[in-house]
């Protein structure tokens, strides 16, 4: 490799010290022999790949934040330890991406200044560890949380146009150090290879919008109505989940449906509870320590009423929003008890709120009795049956006979030979494409997707035409009056062409400018080399 001219002493020292861990003066004779070899280039390429790898993981980390509360609950069920693991994820990811980014910027600056890319062995070890950690994270994601790959694919509908612009911008800036390297390297094969790879990458980026699709690329007049909000266990960011306070907070968020989970006590009282055990959302370990591990259905109603269903919310802070609660809300949350289904139905009736629930656990030996008891409470409550949305599949035909006014919601897609038409479906947001949502909407089938917390995801589903979404963040989605972005196809096409043309011109300018700079330096270098040769000859004589 050639030894290109260096920059000033201060710049050389500031760049080389953190990258190479060497104190090198600016005098060229003391740097003689320190050149960027093919071995150094291979480590720079590895650094660039690690940076891209961690960048992709950062993107995934941001995307999976929508579903991270489920991960926190999973860890609690397995380890009985509550922690907001999203903070750990983001901090660790920020450290990895910051480290690889700083090294990459240093390397690019060194190349522009004509300094050798001598990466220190400590950085090499740390880069390998970074790659292994990120690879382990992706592997764990694929094994334990495979549905997040579908979430990433959906996210591209929201971020694709902007990722394209960012990628074009990043690769355009890369033209400067690339041009500097090409004009100073002596290997013709390496120059040709790098140019071919770079040109292929830029052509692929320039044409990428041909494969980018998003439901939000549409005219304003084509935008479907805003999806209705379904409160997931109420408003769990503002109050303890599955409590009457959570129901009231959901009403304040203009939620149209209160989604909850119902279990039946040992003495036949249906009550609101999601987990099969009571340990996460009550103080059962303090009140009944010897029975804490039992199924929720093993407790009678009298026992359940002794439990505190609100203090855990203030102590564990399952969502960051808990910190911003008012003193009055904190006091009310601390007083929450486990509500019965009858109490929840009465509150829903007074607020003109629909209620949708699962009856758990479905594998219980006495499940048919659970269905009958639950139906009895519904019929006795006096709530209009059209406000009750029935989710459980077990003994659905019996429910239709005993309470014909209840609306039935199915947790599956419609079948080709459906005996009777399906009017409502309730599915994970990963399980329906934008095309399927549009088709169901045309066929007058109400589609509710869960759990949708992030505005970007809500925007994509809004543009797709979904009927409603189940959410933990009703207070956030309530304030959205419009999708985050909406672009007519003609506007997006214009942005695409302008960005690509501007990028192309900058790349041409970078290569032309670096070529002129290299030509200016060559005469000076030639004169210096001749002078050094003459001096060396005289000394030998």
Instruction: Give the beta-strand count.
Output: 9
The biggest beta sheet is recorded as: 9 strands, mixed
Q: Which class best fits the helix and strand makeup? A: alpha/beta
The share of residues in extended strands comes to 5-15%
- Coarse morphology: elongated
Explain what you see.
- The protein is an alpha/beta fold.
- It folds into three domains: 11-23 and 35-145, no CATH class; 147-214 and 487-517; 228-478, Phosphatidylinositol (PI) phosphodiesterase (TIM Barrel, Alpha-Beta Barrel), CATH 3.20.20.190.
- 56% of the residues lie in helices and 8% in strands.
- It contains 21 helices and nine strands.
- The chain has helices at residues 9-20, 28-31, 38-63, 68-79, 85-112, 121-144, 147-173, 175-184, 188-207, 244-252, 284-287, 301-304, 311-316, 327-334, 341-350, 367-381, 396-402, 434-442, 455-464, 474-477, 489-540, and strands at residues 228-232, 257-264, 270-272, 354-359, 388-390, 407-408, 424-428, 446-450, 468-471.
- Strands 1, 2, 3, 4, 5, 6, 7, 8 and 9 form a nine-stranded mixed β-sheet that branches.
- α16 (367-381) links the parallel β4 and β5.
- α3 packs antiparallel against α5, α5 (85-112) packs parallel to α8 (175-184) and α15 runs parallel beside α16 (367-381).
- The protein starts with 8 loop residues before the first helix and ends with a helix.
- Mean pLDDT is 90; it is low at 1-6, 25-33 and 524-532.
- Its main location: membrane.
- GO terms for molecular function: glycerophosphodiester phosphodiesterase activity.
- It is found in: Membrane.
- Keywords: Glycoprotein, Hydrolase, Membrane, Transmembrane, Transmembrane helix.
